[in-house]
């Protein structure tokens, strides 16, 4: 009988860990969406102002997006969760 409860406890811990990972990833994906939005807004404003968008103007947002996507991938990899191509 104790094996049943031991196995049940392990299953509950695995499920809780999976949920925690997914919540963390979802929060990071939201930050990526916000960074995409900020990048799009800056690009649009540059075009409306008659300026050709230049690389340096967008580097900070692009770097932020790359870091967040790498962090999402690493979080999923470390928890053995299937990695999706969130972009």
Helicity range = over 70%
Question: Mean pLDDT score, rounded?
Answer: 82
Q: How big is the Rg?
A: 20 Å
Shape: rod-shaped
Q: What's the main sheet like?
A: none
Bin the strand percentage.
under 5%
Assembly context of the chains: single chain
Distance between the termini: 47 Å
Which stretches are low in confidence, meaning pLDDT under 50 for 5 or more residues running?
none
Q: How many domain units?
A: 1
Q: Give the SSE string.
A: HH
The number of helices is 2
* Sheet/helix structural class: mainly alpha
Number of strands: 0
Describe how the helices and strands are arranged.
Layout: H1 2-48, H2 55-78
Helix pairs in contact: 1-2
What do these coordinates show?
The chain has 87 residues and is an all-alpha fold. The chain has one domain (2-78). Helix content is 82%, strand content 0%. It is built from 2 helices and no strands. The protein has helices at residues 2-48, 55-78. Helix 1 packs antiparallel against helix 2. The longest helix has 47 residues, at 2-48. The radius of gyration is 20 Å and the shape is rod-shaped. It starts with a helix and ends in a 9-residue tail after the last helix. The model has no long low-confidence stretch (mean pLDDT 82).
């Amino acid at each position: 009988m104790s094996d049943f409860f031991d196995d049940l406890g392990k299953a509950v811990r695995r499920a809780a860990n999976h949920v925690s990972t997914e919540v963390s990833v979802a929060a990071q994906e939201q930050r990526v969406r916000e960074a995409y939005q900020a990048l799009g807004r800056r690009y649009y404003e540059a075009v409306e102002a008659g300026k050709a968008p230049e690389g340096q103007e967008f580097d900070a947002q692009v770097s932020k997006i790359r870091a967040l996507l790498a962090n999402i991938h690493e979080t999923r990899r470390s928890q053995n969760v299937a990695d999706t191509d969130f972009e």
